[in-house]
Amino acid sequence: MRPLSDPPLSPAADTGWRRHWFDIIYRHDTPPSRNFDLLLVAAIIASVLVVMLDSVQHLHARWSHWMYGVEWAFTVLFTAEYVARLMVVRRPLRYAFSIWGVIDLLSILPTYLSLLVPGAQSLLVVRALRILRVFRILKLTRYIEESGVLMHALWRSRRKVLVFLFTVITITIIAGALMYLLEGPAHGFSNIPSSMYWAVVTMATVGFGDIVPQTALGRFVTSVLILIGYSIIAVPTGIYTAELANSMREAGQQGQPSQDCSRCGLQTHVADARYCSRCGNALSIAAAD
Amino acid sequence: MRPLSDPPLSPAADTGWRRHWFDIIYRHDTPPSRNFDLLLVAAIIASVLVVMLDSVQHLHARWSHWMYGVEWAFTVLFTAEYVARLMVVRRPLRYAFSIWGVIDLLSILPTYLSLLVPGAQSLLVVRALRILRVFRILKLTRYIEESGVLMHALWRSRRKVLVFLFTVITITIIAGALMYLLEGPAHGFSNIPSSMYWAVVTMATVGFGDIVPQTALGRFVTSVLILIGYSIIAVPTGIYTAELANSMREAGQQGQPSQDCSRCGLQTHVADARYCSRCGNALSIAAAD
Amino acid sequence: MRPLSDPPLSPAADTGWRRHWFDIIYRHDTPPSRNFDLLLVAAIIASVLVVMLDSVQHLHARWSHWMYGVEWAFTVLFTAEYVARLMVVRRPLRYAFSIWGVIDLLSILPTYLSLLVPGAQSLLVVRALRILRVFRILKLTRYIEESGVLMHALWRSRRKVLVFLFTVITITIIAGALMYLLEGPAHGFSNIPSSMYWAVVTMATVGFGDIVPQTALGRFVTSVLILIGYSIIAVPTGIYTAELANSMREAGQQGQPSQDCSRCGLQTHVADARYCSRCGNALSIAAAD
Amino acid sequence: MRPLSDPPLSPAADTGWRRHWFDIIYRHDTPPSRNFDLLLVAAIIASVLVVMLDSVQHLHARWSHWMYGVEWAFTVLFTAEYVARLMVVRRPLRYAFSIWGVIDLLSILPTYLSLLVPGAQSLLVVRALRILRVFRILKLTRYIEESGVLMHALWRSRRKVLVFLFTVITITIIAGALMYLLEGPAHGFSNIPSSMYWAVVTMATVGFGDIVPQTALGRFVTSVLILIGYSIIAVPTGIYTAELANSMREAGQQGQPSQDCSRCGLQTHVADARYCSRCGNALSIAAAD
Known about the structure:
The structure is a homotetramer.
Chain A: H1 16-26, H2 31-54, H3 57-88, H4 92-96, H5 99-106, H6 109-113, H7 134-137, H8 140-156, H9 158-182, H10 192-203, H11 216-232, H12 234-255
Helix pairs in contact in A: 1-2, 1-3, 2-3, 8-12, 9-10
């Protein structure tokens, strides 16, 4: 539900430097910890930029030595951070196997791997995933809450989306095979998987134009396929909008602070509730938003 | 309304092997029947994959004999299944003429046909439609219910969608003829049907780029057509979202029959309310979802 | 509001053949008038098909004489229908200057024009507009009502759509000029109008690919423009969905038959109204839908 | 919230010509001020058209001298207007640093700049931004209100849109690097920034087709990326629709302040209700829209 938040970790010690550094690294509400987050995100963005620029040939030709050095510097830095994270936490494995722990590890491995396998540095862009930590620097709780609403709506629409995806895949297979029969390898539809790639590109209205129908019948089938895809695009939007409206309504109701029942503590009430719906206790009416 | 569910079929006999196999084949809630469904879906996916891979030239060149054998094996298997389905059911024709019965038949015919007409094997991808049986393996009832909500919303918006489709087709014809006059065969708009194909591709924002306007006037008309198409895409999405929100609300309400307050008559309660939020009266609790 | 309905026309005479033919031509609820509508729509579709096929070169080469004859036959037929429509109605000019009257005239003129200006036949596709008469053959009133709801929502969102269109046009002009400066005629952005055509094609996610940025800066600006366009597509959909939901709610409320106030006749009540909101009269509560 | 409205400016003097011209220039509700607005918008559109046409080579070759003159004429005119705006207002700097003041200045600078830097005239299209003044000529207040609702919904969804944008950028970086590894410079994916440009073009369903995957694996990853992009397009639409529905509801409610029933307290009434629909009590009528 809240994929951007840390797992609930506790410090390795109650006092001393490990407690001190735990607060800096894992908390986000004190000035030192905020500065740490800021520096970290800056380093992540810088290191991703270096990987990108290194792939541009004329920059690589000229600055390759510098970039190589910078890359190793960032890798050493992130390795130190990873080790520190493991050291100051009570149960290091709990961090290491959390989503963030895995991402943190993946973002330093490629450089070491590149000593064995040349070219592995490009995998360093996995570091980009760490950019999502940026939400911690911005006014944290609000954004996590908003992303919580978005994820909640996605989660609630998962079954409808699965039904939708199966239908799309089935249409793709049928359409791909049909166009392979109609147009054939001579017109670029060289086999059924290629035709299916074309069907996805067409139905999703991307339309690269690298493969196009050339017979009259093929063009007619394409037009029908496009109209189907055009109607189908309404489905996930409709599902998501309806679920999001529900999630937002509930989140909005939870956010009205004085609606909590003083007896049983229930928070979810309808907008103009005067009695708690769980225990029947009279609510103190708040001046609504 | 519920296109993925079987027609209501009854077993050919109340006891004996036909009853036994009826339960395995047509029910989905006992361990043997779930294993049967699992095996069947695995076989369907495998057979569709073989048809796809057989269309790739360099695989066909090398493995054509093996694939030919596998294809026949699956066909014999599915034929046996089809015959079994006919035998264990009380009214075989009812199954044979149901949607699933026709799909099951179509998914074995092409192999036999290919003995007469070479190339007919590609039609085997019709088997892909059988993949929709996968919903039975997953937690069945929930998915059928969800797809019921999706279909119900589609069904309710059918008239609006028809009005929409007629309008789109009319715009396509007019735009196609106009561009044929403006650009002409020299710029790829070789006749009105081709121009209409271009208009569909353009209005639906696919934009292959195989046919493009080259005169200033043609580009202006194209821009206007695109803006029209861009506004029109809002229409089916809007229709579907509004209908889906209605269907979801109703589906939610059908699940909570006794929510009306017996004292003040208020109908809008939160999902698990036990007391009326307006007058505090105890609600008779319904067996929730 | 109801663009597909006839203007309120009255017969030229109360009895006699003019009254008889008025009923056949202008009404849609008696067997003879429904047959007339059916024949008319069939003739319209056939004549549009002939115009389309005539534009295909290899068909034209072979069947040009036949098609020429068929075209004139349809034109004579539609001319007779047009004259009949004028004759049986009390105020012919009211019909002639209604939307349908103008379309009916435009759909016969091009053939006569082609005697003077060769190639004018292609304009005959204007006849396609007459296909919209098809709604009369289908269960008439329901469709007109549905299209009424769609039009009503469009009408209510007109101001928001205008604000939106002005914004899009302004972005198009700015983006077009910027890309003309960045890429220049060498890369296909040959002048500002062409660049604007490219900006529309790109922002609306059509993406023909006939003109594409080739410099790094141009590609960056394009990415930003696409993300803007991608967010902007949400705006008309959002506007239309919200307005349509409103219109449907109102239409639904109007459709609950026993909600009419027995004193003042007001039809629009909230779903659980017990008193008329205009005159205060107690409503007889209907068993809701 | 109301980006199209002027900042609250007061006249430089209470009487005399400065007061007179202040009314003409800054107000929009008297006949002279409406004529001034009309002339101004006409001049803006004409001057933008001249800049556009001047970029078309064959027009430039022939009319370049004329256009040069017209351009300077408009620049002098707009300079005079800018100076007048500064002179008649009490606090000129407040105007100069408002959004409109900056746009007004930017729309005259390029011509003067072109004396020093050739080619700077193309920047004159910034003038297009001034076209937004057109809303003042149309029935002013209604449009500003509508754009207020649109902006309000955008503003309320800003956090959700930011979360969404960060996610899209992260996916773009990962997908760009992955395709760079899979396809490589030989197939047009010449470096990671180019691959990211391709990923944006593909995910947003633009699909120019200037860079396309050619390996089987690359096509498979592309298909997955497209399906992700296809699902993701639902997110901003869903966010915006839900927020817009909220904003519209509130805007509607703000316009009907006295709709609460004084007897039973019911708040939901139809727009022009005069009696409470629950208890039949007469409502105090508000001056409706």
